[in-house]
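ok new one. same drill as before - structure tokens go in, u give me an amino acid for every spot. 127 of them this time. try not to just spam alanines like last time pls lmao
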């Protein structure tokens, strides 16, 4: 199968065992809205993301909206994110009250903190 541009399915961390491995071996960094775990994956030319939104945060509608926002933010930031890692993003309660723009801004902040954003010349990432 040709490696197309759209590797969406392979780019998701799905299995519970993979989540557990990222939690136990990965490094974490956080801000008020999100905790991000990252784990280096040698021989993986792309990054993958896994999402964890606790039932404590809201009903299914709210949780799914947070997940959509996070996925969309990663899609928009994909060229700036360092490849070869698995990332697990855990939403904290304040994330449930954020707009997409705020989620994206918060994720940029936390990813910078974890030093997993490439140094980009595009103005939008400079804060």
């Amino acid at each position: 199968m040709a490696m197309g541009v759209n590797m969406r399915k392979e780019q998701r961390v799905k299995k519970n065992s993979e989540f557990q491995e990222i939690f136990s071996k990965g490094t974490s960094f956080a801000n008020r809205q999100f905790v991000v775990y990252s784990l280096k994956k040698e021989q993986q030319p792309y990054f993958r993301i896994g999402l964890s939104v606790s039932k404590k945060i809201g009903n299914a509608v709210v949780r799914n909206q947070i997940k959509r926002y996070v996925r969309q933010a990663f899609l928009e930031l994909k060229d700036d994110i360092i490849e070869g890692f698995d990332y697990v993003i855990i939403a904290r309660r304040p994330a449930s009250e954020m707009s997409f723009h705020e989620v994206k801004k918060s994720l940029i902040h936390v990813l910078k903190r974890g030093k997993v954003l490439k140094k980009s010349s595009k103005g939008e990432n400079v804060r």
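The first strand starts at residue 27 and ends at 30. and btw DSSP finds three helices and four strands in the chain.
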